[in-house]
Every structure is written in structure tokens, then in C-alpha cells.
């Protein structure tokens, strides 16, 4: 699985993409898997709100933190109605 991921990523030319989105983004990452300095590249695509949320774990950290991540997503989609 890892080999296929890295093989595909290694052959893609991300630096040649000219993409921009004004959709707000919530970027989930693990410092152990991909450092924040590398994740900051998402700000070149999401030109407005782009928030970063660090979690512990490696490549499949979502398995351990899915509930926390779901709460963040839910708060973004359904803001408080006070």
C-alpha cells in the first residue's frame, strides 16, 4: 500500500499545477508523517481560510482520531446557532 502511494506521488508534478480555491479548508495532519512546513503548501491552493489541525500518529492517524476530526468538520459545517 505504501509503495503504491509513494510510486504514484513520486511521478506526479504537483509544482506544475495552477489550482486555487476560495473554499475554506481544514487540513488534518500528523507531524510524524508530514511536517507542518510541508503541509503549509496547501495554502497555495486554498487561498482564503486554511486551518491546520495536528494529530499524533503516523500515516493512518485518522483511525485513532476520527471522532475528534468529525467534531471539527461538524463545527465547520454547522456553526453554533445562538
Structural notes for this entry:
By secondary structure, the protein is of the alpha+beta class. Helices cover 37% and strands 15% of the residues. The protein contains three helices and two strands; from the N terminus they run αβαβα. The chain has helices at residues 2-11, 36-39, 62-77; strands at residues 25-30, 50-55. The longest helix has 16 residues, at 62-77. It starts with a helix and ends in a 5-residue tail after the last helix. The model has no long low-confidence stretch (mean pLDDT 87).
Oligomerization status of the protein chains: single chain
The largest pleated sheet is described as: 2 strands, parallel
- Class by alpha and beta content: alpha+beta
Which range best describes the helical content: under 10%, 10-25%, 25-40%, 40-55%, 55-70% or over 70%? 25-40%
Q: Count of helices?
A: 3
> How many strands appear in the DSSP assignment?
2
Mean pLDDT: 87
| Largest beta sheet: strand ordering | 1-2
Distance between the termini: 46 Å
Instruction: Identify low-pLDDT runs.
Output: none
Shape, principal axes of CA atoms: globular
How much of the sequence lies in strands comes to 5-15%
Order of helix and strand elements from N to C terminus: HEHEH
- Report the C-alpha radius of gyration, rounded: 15 Å
